[in-house]
Design a protein that fits this description.
InterPro entries: SKP1/BTB/POZ_sf. Helices cover 66% and strands 0% of the residues. It is mainly alpha-helical. The protein has one domain. It is elongated and about 55 Å long.
């Protein structure tokens, strides 16, 4: 993440993109919350969405996520609603 911050400071988009793609590849239950905060701070939509998708998979699999309590209530409520599937009437 330090490399990303360096690239952001000097506006080196190619390095920012490479780091973001590498971070997406290493999302785990122990770092996803940290990556959510990071992606929000740097406004990285692709990383943020990848983290959300990962959280939804963790929820479906009943996988514990380190630091989930540090996310704000509105965020958690929205992710919970995202995980619900609408009822379809024929």
């Amino acid at each position: 993440m330090l490399l990303y911050r360096f690239a952001d400071k000097y506006e080196i988009k190619s390095i920012m993109d490479l780091v973001e793609n590498d971070l997406i590849k290493i999302i785990t239950p122990s770092n996803v919350v940290q990556l959510i905060h990071f992606s929000k701070n740097f406004n990285e939509a692709k990383l943020y969405q990848s983290c959300i998708n990962f959280l939804l998979k963790c929820s479906e699999a009943h996988t514990s996520v380190l630091g989930i309590e540090s996310l704000d209530d509105h965020f958690l409520a929205m992710r919970f609603l995202d995980s619900l599937r609408p009822v379809v009437f024929d």
